[in-house]
Structures are given as structure tokens and as C-alpha cells.
């Protein structure tokens, strides 16, 4: 009787030991995987701290000689850029240090006056000619000034953009008379490499000092690129307000001598750049007796192709606004793989006020994507303050109630 008891006790101890050993091995593997350094291709830095992947093999990553560089150029598609995540310390904060580039002043100690004084020296005359000048209307509506710097690191084959600050932004919040600004930056012409700064609360003079480093861009390719800065104000309850934009063609800008400090006036967003977004056919009818607005989304045509799959999967989101506040929203079904979609879907909206004076309606044509966030293909707004065909269509709806009126409209950028 004692022998089975002893065997059972030893078996139990062996089982407990085996389970504990297995759990310990799993924890060690998990911790070792979390400590591995990811293959950095893009680095986003706050407060001027440059972080480069020094622990990676530079020969394999960036090319050590002309032969390997030639192979990389042939294998790499034109205008190919790479992105990665931002890096913080153990507490989740960004260490505040300063970096200096040979032959250029330190950005941390530079004031807006320094930017203006060095603007002529840092930018060539050819680049100034290539940049679109402000129209008389844009000069009347002052939207502020954006300060930034450009640099190319030949050792790392990296293009570096530092968004320093913005000055004199308009107040987008009428109650607090301030804004919550942030900046989206896109490298054209690919338009799929997008980055953005953090949101700074309640300020008209935001100091971002954020550095975006793009690896794998040959210096010869820089001349073909254009930087597009979109300045926005964050809105928690509706769509973010667009303050303005800055467009910087890099053709003619010489980056071989070090960091260039630049500043540009923020101009009003150009809605005419929407060519190629496609068209949308909608029909509207205002019933004055029931105080309802009937909206029929009929067709879309000539929609642009998506970057990855070639064809988009479009659907339409309809938003109803009263005094710039969204009060209702609807959306159509998704049409798979087509640039010419037929929806034929009807929506009825209850109007909270008499008449359509404070009412506007927004159509967003989006590309459905299960793997990531749905991209906006184009945008259309109908209302009393809308320009072009949107305003004309709305005027006819108000003048002829109980009549269904349909029109084609060009979509603008979302």
C-alpha cells in the first residue's frame, strides 16, 4: 500500500514541476520577443530629439557602396517611402534635448525673426519662383505663418522634416475664441505617406517642434517631391475645422549644405484641386407641409482608383447639419470594385426648423476597407452658403418645394 502512495506523491510533484517549468519558459520567450528592436524605417520625434537605428546593420539597410546602392535603386519603386512608429522613454515622455546640424543654427534657439532673416539665404531663387504666390484675397484673410525646416542626412539616406511652430492662427472656436491646432503632412505625389503632429489645446501660436524622418529616399528623388501641410483645429463633436494649407515643391531647393530654415504664409484651402475626384448624382425634395427633406443618392461616376487594389469599394455617407451642428446621418450600401456605382437609395430627414435657411447637407463618398480606416474619396456640400453647383441646387430646392430636383456635382477633396 505504501509503494502506490509514494509513486502518486512523486508523480504529483513531477507534474507541478513540469507545469512551472513550461510557464517559466513561455514567459522568457514572451519577454525576449518584446525586447526585440523593430526594423525602423521612419522615426517620429518630439522636441528635436533625433533617433536613428544605430543597432541595425547599415550595410544591409542603407547600402555601403555604389554597387549595393545601384541594386537598391533598381529594386525600389519610384517615390517609395517608409513609415514607422514614434519612440518614447519608459515613462511615456519624450526627453527634451537639442540637436545641431553642421553649418546650420540650432532650431531650439531660433526665433520667428531668425526664420525671416535667413529665409533669403536658405532658399534658392529658383525655388521661390516655383512656389505659388499669395493672391490678393489670401493676403486679406490672414491665416498665420508656418515655420519648419528641411534636411537630408546623406549618411543615413534620410529626409528629415521638422515642424517647428505656427504663428497667428485664426480662432476656430467662437465661444472660447481660440483653436486646438494640429498639422497633417503628406508627401506628394504618392499621397499615401501621411503623418501628423499632436494636438495642442487652446492656442493660436502652437509650438510643435516635431521631427519626421523618412528613410530610403534617394537624394536624386527629392526634387520630384512636394510637401503638403494641412493645418487643422481639432473638434471633439464634429469634423475637424480646416484652417488652411501650405504647399512646398522641393524642385530647386538645395539640401546638400545642411538644414534649411523656412517659413510660409498659410493660405486658404484650394477647393479647385478636387479635379479627378469623380462626380455624384443626387436628387432632393423639400416637403414644406411635413417639414421633411427627401434625399436620393442615385449614382457616382469616374471615381478614382485606390492605391492598393486598383478599384475602390464606394459608399456614400449623408450628414444633415443645422447651424453647423450635425443632427442626423445616414449611409448607403457598399458597391464592390467599381468606379461607376449605382446606389438608388432614398433617405428622409426631419427638419427641426421652418425652412432651409440654417440647414446644409454633406455627402461623403468613401472607400470601404476592412483592414484599415475608410478613406474619403470625395466630398459634396449643399446649402445656402455652398459655392458652385451645390449652392445653385440648394436654391432651386428652396424655390420649388415638393419637386424632386436631381443634379450631377463634382466631388472635392475630403
UniProtKB/TrEMBL annotation:
One Pfam family name is C2
**Domain C2: residue ranges:** 142-263, 276-409
Protein keywords: Calcium, Cytoplasmic vesicle, Membrane, Metal-binding, Phosphoprotein, Repeat, Transmembrane, Transmembrane helix
Q: State where composition is biased (Polar residues).
A: 94-112
For biological process, the GO terms are:
calcium ion-regulated exocytosis of neurotransmitter; negative regulation of secretion by cell; vesicle fusion
Q: Give the Gene Ontology MF terms in alphabetical order.
A: calcium ion binding; calcium-dependent phospholipid binding; clathrin binding; phosphatidylserine binding; SNARE binding
- Which segment of the chain is annotated as a signal peptide? none
Q: Which residues cross the membrane?
A: 6-27
Q: What is its main location?
A: membrane
GO CC annotation terms, alphabetical: axon; cytoplasmic vesicle membrane; exocytic vesicle; plasma membrane; presynapse
| Region: Disordered, residue numbers | 62-131
- UniProt name for this protein: SYT4 protein
Amino acid at each position: 500500500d505504501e509503494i502506490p502512495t509514494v509513486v502518486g506523491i512523486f508523480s504529483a510533484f513531477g507534474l507541478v514541476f513540469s507545469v512551472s517549468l513550461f510557464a517559466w519558459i513561455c514567459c522568457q520567450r514572451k519577454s525576449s520577443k518584446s525586447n526585440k528592436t523593430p526594423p525602423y524605417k521612419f522615426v517620429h520625434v518630439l522636441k528635436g530629439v533625433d533617433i536613428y537605428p544605430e543597432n541595425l546593420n547599415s550595410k544591409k539597410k542603407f547600402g555601403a557602396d555604389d554597387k549595393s546602392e545601384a541594386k537598391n535603386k533598381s529594386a525600389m519603386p519610384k517615390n517609395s517611402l517608409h513609415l514607422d512608429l514614434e519612440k518614447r522613454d519608459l515613462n511615456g515622455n519624450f526627453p527634451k534635448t537639442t540637436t545641431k546640424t553642421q553649418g546650420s543654427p540650432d532650431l531650439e534657439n531660433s526665433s520667428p525673426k531668425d526664420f525671416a532673416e535667413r529665409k533669403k539665404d536658405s532658399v534658392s531663387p529658383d525655388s521661390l519662383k516655383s512656389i505659388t504666390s499669395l493672391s490678393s484675397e489670401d493676403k486679406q484673410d490672414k491665416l498665420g505663418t508656418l515655420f519648419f525646416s528641411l534636411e537630408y542626412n546623406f549618411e543615413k539616406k534620410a529626409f528629415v522634416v521638422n515642424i517647428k511652430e505656427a504663428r497667428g492662427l485664426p480662432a476656430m472656436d467662437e465661444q472660447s475664441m481660440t483653436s486646438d491646432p494640429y498639422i497633417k503632412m503628406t508627401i506628394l505625389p504618392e499621397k499615401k505617406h501621411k503623418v501628423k503632429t499632436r494636438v495642442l489645446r487652446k492656442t493660436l501660436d502652437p509650438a510643435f517642434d516635431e521631427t519626421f524622418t523618412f528613410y530610403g529616399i534617394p537624394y536624386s528623388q527629392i526634387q520630384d517631391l512636394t510637401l503638403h501641410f494641412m493645418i487643422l483645429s481639432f473638434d471633439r463633436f464634429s469634423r475637424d475645422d480646416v484652417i488652411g494649407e501650405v504647399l512646398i515643391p522641393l524642385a530647386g531647393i538645395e539640401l546638400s549644405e545642411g538644414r534649411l530654415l523656412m517659413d510660409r504664409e498659410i493660405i486658404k484651402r484650394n477647393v479647385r484641386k478636387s479635379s479627378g475626384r469623380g462626380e455624384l448624382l443626387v436628387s432632393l425634395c423639400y416637403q414644406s407641409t411635413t417639414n421633411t427633406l427627401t434625399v436620393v443618392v442615385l449614382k457616382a461616376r469616374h471615381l478614382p482608383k485606390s492605391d492598393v487594389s486598383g478599384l475602390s469599394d464606394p459608399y456614400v455617407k449623408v450628414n444633415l447639419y443645422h447651424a453647423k451642428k450635425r443632427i442626423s446621418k445616414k449611409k448607403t450600401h457598399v458597391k464592390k470594385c467599381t468606379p461607376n456605382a449605382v446606389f438608388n437609395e432614398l433617405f428622409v430627414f426631419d427638419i427641426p426648423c421652418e425652412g432651409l435657411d440654417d440647414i446644409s447637407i454633406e455627402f461623403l463618398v468613401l472607400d470601404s476597407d476592412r483592414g484599415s480606416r475608410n478613406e474619403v474619396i470625395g466630398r459634396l456640400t449643399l446649402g445656402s452658403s455652398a459655392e458652385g453647383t451645390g449652392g445653385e441646387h440648394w436654391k432651386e430646392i428652396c424655390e420649388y418645394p415638393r419637386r424632386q430636383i436631381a443634379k450631377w456635382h463634382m466631388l472635392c477633396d475630403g
